[in-house]
């Protein structure tokens, strides 16, 4: 009788443990997949710009540098997520490999439709970025063991992600200076915020410092952007309702 009770308790404990483990896995994958989906929204956001470039057969005053920075960032973060660098962060690989593919397409179109001077400049910078990534990959595999390799790539990915926040900071400064949200599209800001929140949760659940720190910073910047949007869009609406004096 006692052995049956002990066996039943052990079975119940095992079932509870498996259930909690499965719930933990579900939460991890849900956060990672949500981050992938919101990141996809960001990846396709330049499509209207490139439709205009292709239609006009000119890059006009657009810059290709943001796409170059995004490409290098995606490549470094993708490399960090690969199994021989880090364990169990496959959704970091998927989002950044998709992102790298989009940035390569954008850069190819930019180079095709740029004038000769900008074509040569962007082509050279693209080759330089790819060579830099190849160097990082080679050094990390040949000169570092697995723990050191993960640490090296982790810090590089954090630095790369934090450098990408220069764009939101510039937009925040522009909104405050102009007191207008014209240059800060709401849905783009919302998608950036939701992506950062998702990957922050993903990093926290996996206890991965190199994922949750930069995305925590991105979450805070996203909150600031959304608050600024709410404040200045309301001010614009209020001022538009003020009656004109005769």
Short description:
The protein has nine helices and no strands. By secondary structure, the chain is an all-alpha fold. The radius of gyration is 23 Å and the shape is globular.
Defining key terms:
mainly alpha; 83% helix; disordered N terminus; repeat; transport; sugar transmembrane transporter activity
Task: Write a structural description.
The model is unreliable at 1-7 (pLDDT under 50). 83% of the residues lie in helices and 0% in strands. With 246 residues, it is an all-alpha fold. The termini are far apart. It contains 9 helices and no strands. Helix 3 (65-81) runs antiparallel to helix 6 (146-164). Belongs to the SWEET sugar transporter family. The chain crosses the membrane at residues 23-44, 65-82, 88-112, 124-141, 153-176, 183-203, 209-232. Keywords: Cell membrane, Membrane, Repeat, Sugar transport, Transmembrane, Transmembrane helix, Transport.
Q: Secondary-structure element order, as H and E?
A: HHHHHHHHH
Q: Which percent range describes the beta-strand content?
A: under 5%
Main sheet record = none
Radius of gyration: 23 Å
Characterize the overall form: globular
Set down the secondary structure blueprint.
Layout: H1 2-44, H2 47-56, H3 65-81, H4 90-113, H5 116-142, H6 146-164, H7 166-178, H8 186-205, H9 209-240
Helix pairs in contact: 1-4, 1-8, 2-4, 3-4, 3-5, 3-6, 4-5, 6-9, 7-9, 8-9
